[in-house]
Design brief:
This protein is mostly helical. It is built from 19 helices and no strands. The protein is globular.
Amino acid sequence: MLNIIWVLFFITAFVVALVKWLLLGDQQVFSEIMTAMFALSKTAFEISLGLTGVLALWLGIMKIGEQCGFIQLLTHGLTPLFKRLMPEVPENHPALGAMVMNISANALGLDNAATPLGIKAMQELQKLNPNPETATNAQILFLVINTSAVTLFPIAIFTYRAQLGAANPTDVFIPILLATYISTLVGLGAVSLVQKINLWDKIIASYFIGFSLFIGLLVFYFSQLSQVEMLLQSALMSNVVLFTLVMIFILTATYKHINAYEAFVEGAKEGFNTAIMIIPYLVAMLVAIGVFRASGALELCANGLRYCVNLLGFDTRFIDAMPTALMKPFSGSGARAMMIDTMQVHGADSFAGHLASIVQGSTETTFYVLAVYFGAVKIKHIRHAVACGVIADVAGIIAAIIVAYWFFG
């Protein structure tokens, strides 16, 4: 499946470029495509290089938590849920701890911390894989949860909105929370349908009711704060939670007479090796995305969508934010650039500016995560991972549009 998607990016880009050259007289399109290929291959290497230190840091910290037994303690509360969602993963397996940590980092908006933890989780799940080249049900479920994960504190989006002159940079907080939660529920539902997971199981249902109440209370609490207080408290909460967790690992290791330094170094070595391993997978995916964008195929998709919406007689204001939505599943940095461009052209407080911000926070970069996580464990056959991930993305985008019209329409 991944091979088909990758090839289609190039074929579509080539066909669109030929049409632009032969029929529209665009003499630069192939030059732009080649420039994108070289630029994106360099970007992919730079991303991998940038991940090296972060991977080493967080896998080192994870190793401390693993050796002092805290990871097992942390996962104990979620074990009943994961046992039903992922019955093939043994109780107290190291993968559970890494998955919990990854989901927590995503929820806090800590992307740099979430990636190495997610790779660690995928590597641990791979140890249970009877067919190393084919993704297991547990790996697919984890990837979809990861790509649609709820983001409680989208601090980066607040910052960009403030820099671009938004009167109230945090006014998208509640809309983002609602849209990303819907994305997560739909993504989980899609995987459950394929894998025949019973979401009406009493334990699974009780967890989701609890999570929903927590989201509701969080939304209520932050909705009572001023924009300045919301930004300060969300940033403070994120950083305090993360560093407190690091200190708990270190202090627990000290209490149990575990050499925390050696444990950290051992885990950091794994991080370095992993960063090197993912380079070819990341180059392959980012170059394909760059070619698709440089050819004009992405712009063609947006224009086609605008035409269809016009035919249906619906409001087309949301189309101005669709470049962010179309780019988001493929490239986080690309979508961020699209969001910034939308706010610069239309204004941070315009409808398009608000919607682009909500879309940016509603879903994750499915194809990037797929390339990095599956590439880290050399998975070739991804089965229904892309389909379920894209379903979650589409749900998040639709939810973002609906919520944007509700709040800012």
